[in-house]
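Following up on my earlier message about ribose-5-phosphate. Here are the inputs again, as you asked, copied directly from the submission form:
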Amino acid sequence: MPDLEDLTEGARFAASVPARPEAFPIKGCGALDWGMQSRLARIFRPATRRTVMLAIDHGYFQGPTTGLERVDLSIVPLLPYADALMTTRGMVRSTIPPAAGTPIVLRASGGPSMLRDLSNEQIAVSMEDAVRINACAVAVQVFIGGEYETQSVRNMTRLVDAGQRYGVPVLAVTAVGRELTRDARYLRLATRICAELGAHFVKTYYCEPDFGTVAAACPVPLVMAGGKKLPELDALTMAYRAIDEGAAGVDMGRNIFQSDRPAAMIRAVGAVVHESLKPQAAYDQFLRPSPRSA
Ligand code: R5P
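Thanks, got it. Here's what our run produced:
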């Protein structure tokens, strides 16, 4: 009902104060639709604009990976420490408690097992199902230089088109085949292609030297991929350098869930990412006994 008696004080309209449009301030995000920005703001912690994603999607091509044999026992207890969980719809529906509240980055490509050419992927999830799951993003592998390069890029662009319709961001994961070198030149090429063709954020490997040029040349946020298990101090050092050189977060799997103390490790990674704790200090924190078992 209109305010018939005009009780509202004129001053409350603050006519001289311009309204401030507040886009979520991460790289390349300002022109995105509200729903898209809102989902990104669940993945990237607004206070730091960075993210610690826990990647447990390995089973989609390699079955029960070491550390992921029982996701209910090994991963669910880690959810409070993850800003987002990268996983498959099968694992979401079977094992991840809906009440956990952890934003889901849903694996949306697949097809070949590790026994075949991994680049021969197809889209494996409809955007409608991603929305039904309440995913905050979908993830797709992009094989630049791979046998099925164009097909994988097409998977990504089709997901971007669908994501634009529904307000769901797309994470492009740059997959590097055994025959390709993970140097800055290659990673600049791969990440830039993904961003130019519409990916809303990109996951890629750390490289030395010049990771900073990879991050600088990519107009959307980069998250660093973990890769094979390293000693904890080395993994924390890699994460620290990636953030220091421009990454907006990490998406780590084996370096967390294959650690002897996964909860301590994900908390240490969180301290590096969100508090810029130096690697040795984060490692000392990792080693400290925790009140809860880690
Ligand atoms: C593959 O490339 C997938 O994205 C992985 O299954 C996963 O995300 C890799 O995680 P990490 O290398 O840190 O174990």
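One observation from looking it over: The two ends are 57 Å apart (CA to CA). Hope that helps, and feel free to reply on this thread.
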